[in-house]
């Protein structure tokens, strides 16, 4: 059976806050999703940003079949010790040749580790549903997006975004809010596939995160009041309980790509299927 490593970049207090809100840290959510997609797989969780985690070398990682990076509130453009530790971990992942996948901050960490740039989104957030994501010409032929329609919606909660992809990267999908919604990054010996949205999350987890961020959403003018945020949260929770409810889908303006768990997980499922062929697949610069 495959062996996976999940790397969570939340700080300890952020992990505990998420556990109180949603019952799991981001790494624990990933591990649960992987266990559902690959019953019997071995899944380890590490927290590379923690001071107690110690440095990771490529030799520590090669026993894994794939490495997955979670989302988190981390700002990878901050010059802070925890950020430096997380970036050093990602460089070790690239050096190991083990294929990797990341969502939200995971994409941002891989981008920065390979020499790209991440920024705070100018005067906006993407929260709840990332709308009308569309593949680029390269993305339409890429296995990460196999099975996606011409445009789709996905769970998303982020205030940072990739500003510039590193050399050796391919832009795979964009929307009107965030140019880099999906990308492949080839760096050192490694291949990384990533998305700015969250294929690993349940709709309930999205709803609870929005409720926890209600004040920020009002401040960003995405809602007129916290009551409006709660009404949106209530609809998301109703959709989580009843994914086929046509009235709730209509109120939220979503279809099965967002409402159905199997469809939400499309990119993660594709990565796991193709990961064996990606090991040590990146060309190494002379």
Automatic annotation (TrEMBL):
Keywords: Glutamine amidotransferase. The keyword Disulfide bond does not apply. InterPro entries: ChyE-like, Class_I_gatase-like, GATASE. Residues 1-28 are annotated as: Disordered. Coiled coil: none annotated. Residues 60-204 form the Glutamine amidotransferase domain. It holds the Pfam family GATase. PROSITE patterns: GATASE_TYPE_1 (PS51273). This is Type 1 glutamine amidotransferase. It comes from Sphingomonas corticis.
